[in-house]
Design brief:
Helices cover 8% and strands 38% of the residues. The protein is mainly beta and 1237 residues long. The chain has a 5-stranded mixed β-sheet, with no helix packed on it. The longest helix is centred in the N-terminal third of the chain and has 11 residues, at 5-15. Residues 1-39 have low confidence and may be disordered.
Length: 1237
Amino acid sequence: MKSSPSNIRLICLCASSVLLVATSCEKTELEKDNQESGWEQMLPFQPDEKIFQYIRGKKLPIREDSDSKTRFTLVGAKQTGVSFINEFQPNHSRKALYSSGFSCGGVAIGDVNGDGWPDIFFTGGPTANKLYHNFGNMHFNDVSSESGLSTGGNPWSAGAAFADIDADGDLDLYVCNYETPNQLWINDGSGKFIEKGKAFGVDTVTASLMPYFQDYDKDGDLDFFLLTNRLFLPGGRPQEPPFRKDSNGKPEVLPSFQKYFQMREAAEGIMKLEPAGLKDQLYRNDGGVFKEVSVEVGIVERGHGLSAAWWDYDDDGDPDLYVANDFKDSDHLYRNDSGTFVDVVKETFPHIAWFSMGSDVADLDGNGGDDLFTLDMSGTNHFRQKTTMGTMNSHKIFLETANPRQYMRNALLMNEGEGLFREAAYLAGLADADWGWAPKLEDFDEDGRVDVFITNGMTQNFTNSDLPMSAQDRIGQTEFDHYRASGFKKDVNLAFENAGKLNFTKVSEAWGLDHEGMSFAAAHGDLDRDGDLDLIVANLNEPAHFYRNDSFEGNRLLLSLKGPNAWGSKVMVVTAKRRQTKTLRPTTGYMSSDEPILHFGLGEEDYIGVIKIIWADGTEQEFGDLYANYYYEITQTTSEATIPEPQKPNQLLFRKVSTNTELLHKEKPFDDYKIQPLLPHKLSRLGPGMAWHDIDANGFPDLFLGGAAGKPGTIWLNHGEGEFRRLVTPALESDKNCEDMGALFFDYDSDGKTDLLVSSGGIESPKGSNNYSDRLYQNVGGFRFERVPFSGGSTSSGSTTACDFDRDGDLDLFIGGRLTLGEYPLPGASRLLRNDNGNFADVTKDLASGLSAAGMVTGALWTDATGDGWTDLLVTTEWGPVKLFKNNKGKLVDATKEAGLSDLTGWWTGITSADFDEDGDLDYAVGNLGLNTKYKVSKAHPFEAYYGAFDETGNKRFVEATWEHNKLYPVRGRSCSTEAMPFVSRKFGSYASFARATMPQIYTSKCLAEAYRVEAKTLESGILLNDGAGHFSFRPLPRIAQIAPIFGIVAKDLDNDGHIDLTVAQNFFSPQPETGHMDGGLGQFLKGLGNGEFIPLAPKESGIAVKGDARSLTAIDLDDNGRLDLVFARNDTAPEIYLHNPNDLGNKENRCLKILLKGSKGNPTGIGSQITLHVQGGNKQSAEIHAGSGYLTQTPAQIYFGLGNEEVATIQVRWPSGNTSTTKVLKGTREVIISSP
């Protein structure tokens, strides 16, 4: 895939405008060594063509396809001249370090002698550190002695980094050591070094892992952050306990052991002795002498640090600091506030990795914001995951209380701007990477998208669940001693190609990077100066690997920044097809320091429109009209910061407003798993629902917000602009032990006053409790509601919806059965209730017998799906399809199969209707679990679950199952399965034997065949496009919308351009602790195009950024300004309100039309009517008036149509009775009231 070395050498010579020759006839010793080795010294590779003032360039060599079958070629020691090995020394006095991040040395790349060729420095752990000089063509020579670095002795060295510490224009070197003084090697410019750590005040003695250089206080010199890990007590824990009880009777570590140990709560009231991390240190450069200022500036926490990154996450111009910590120590995100730091990780990230390892920062989705990728130790297959999880219940308190939550999987935090982040590791295919150390985020294939490389492996498998280390085992021995006989843990290094839209494809083997071993640090640089990035990987107990990048396709660009403010500078490269943003941040990954250059892959584009540099001090430079395939050197022009131009205020679609602090949903603690131990998620936290109606007739819709069990539902009177006041309602207070789910305002008794129905769900009460009875509250006037008798049922209900399904003039009800108590996933009883003059009769058996097999109903919608004028019923189910019950003139018949829906099984949630493709019929949007979870499905291999008796007790249990390599395995591990079914541990005596066993081997084929089985073949949220006769095709929503489960869903033209948009409420915090929060989303606005396609808008465009566990969602005109606002109800916290911004996105000229209907006495607002709007341009829009839609939501019976700049011609209404009416509309009309004929 590349020219031969001789061809590359020739091309480099031809590309140079100046030929440099030796002026001395005397050969140096180095030159003699090279001649004897058959090597030839390459000419210096430096930019020599003046292009503009402050920018010089050098054309990169032309690359040709070679015979290489992989993108990268492993270049052996015979060619490189590098045989460096991080030797494994199991008998070393500090062998305990082999159980930690000190197991292997680091690697740093930089041009130490100024010849343009990047040189390499290796730290060796217990072996000697080495410096190798680059002579070009991947030829290197050991210059450790000549450089002076060999005089540094043989400490146990960890990470190292090149940086111009003394600001003299060359690269100096800082080396971290374990419990011996760190070393600062000052470069004289020729690659000769003198150690001056003490003189500069940085000869620190601690468990130093890695230095990270940055001018954090913007005073013109480089400061640095020193990452530390932990100290190891020789010989393990002492025989005598190293703790005592304090004056309050609580255990505390003895002072002499506090640098080694700490006490941590393991369970309620139980403290556990654990290793203690150390305090990291920040060194400020005060005129060439460094001062440690951590406490002074706000960096005070201890932790087991494994990586860090200087990263302006909030784009305010100040470099912030991210720190990744191992074990239960939380990661930190220190926001830089003009030189002092505040840890904002809790309010910024939805969750983080548990055992955070290496990390890197880059713009993975091309939106201009740098994203964060942090590794953990989650196995890449079923066997590895099930043999390393251990007893997860022992960590239950930690998993349920850590703030932010920490989960044993990689974390991919996507930067949405304004300090907002989504988490997308599962969606991207990057959640699992085995025992990963160094992630490297770069464009390795030159296509303009950032790819991922990950090193893997460990000295021993310290997470082997079959070889636990008890507290007693730790006395007198270290972890390394305990696991020593288990042998090396060799893993395969991983590479992922970025295919766009957060979709990464595994290409480890195709790229030649699938080495199996113990790989730790990794650094990238253009070692052969052909314009692409090569890789160096530090391995334990085998030679370091040099991977030459043999890419030949794609244009590229290399940038070298020169000046005192280069470190931390941001560069934007703009071409015809894309804008790329990168920051000069050489120290990334884990114990890795990359070459301090910036590389941009350009794909097919060979011309650069703009290169813009924002230097670390705020100075800006801009260059344009440049060719690709060049190595450019750019020099900073001035030290004076550029005054930024005033920014125009963001014209967001919505603006968030605050509301009454008492308006909130609050859960009480409840342990669902005592009822069913293997539930996939809690069933007690599925609310709240919302219902809206203008109770006090002041023009503003009022709110009913459902309450959790133990807390009453509440009614709030709306006074506009987000101001709500609670309406005291004793009847609701009396029913506070019910778990409110769906709710409806409607006039059930045709007395002209709006009543309230609330369905009761959850599992908190015992079977047979009246708390499961659905409730009807009659409006008796004076804003008072009283509970009246109602055929409420006794099952756990969910959604509820009303319409006149039998055309008798009043509103009937459907109440969805959510589940059978204690027998998940068996469904509850769904009911069709006919309104007979204010009395409700259960007619399910007679008129809708198919509802008994509807499944676990999560959402429901009365709608004319088949276009025959009769209102049909669509229901969404968990572990089932979206089901269609066709209304055959007052009788509901299951038509799911005929509609093409029966095979579309999933974890469906909310549902709503709109004409997305503008063909005149109604389509449907449906929420689902999404693609950002551990569950993976296909039609051939669905996600499955079984409920049955699997042991001799006859007790039924729920068991999830997933496919891998055509074999069906349990989702849950051995420990939790054993707690539910003790026979599991008797049958499988080890975690390894359980991990190898398939479902039939564990539970028997007979028991599985007899069990109740459910499945999910699709987990994507999407739309169901209707052919007009009730036959549907499924189209997934855009990929970013799959980043979290969708519950609430609204289909309205919110920007009033004449096309229906979608807005969704996301996240789900109820999955069992091992799975953790599904919290990757921020809500999503999807701009409709009118053809069934959508464009997702980022939060910085829409203004929507809903953190937390969002459930129901409504679009409603809260402030009576004629435009729809949004309210997101969230579980266990307050709703969020977003008012429509009248200056939104340039759409302020778009108009909308509001339509209200006056129907019959029993249906005064025309629930169930279908309205078709004909505009003068010939287009038409259709919508329905619902009482209950989305997820647990009812909006007022009003329809808003966006018009753009069009005028309305006529409005056609098909009323619930089947009659139709047509109304002409005058030009300029903004509100129409239409009465039933």
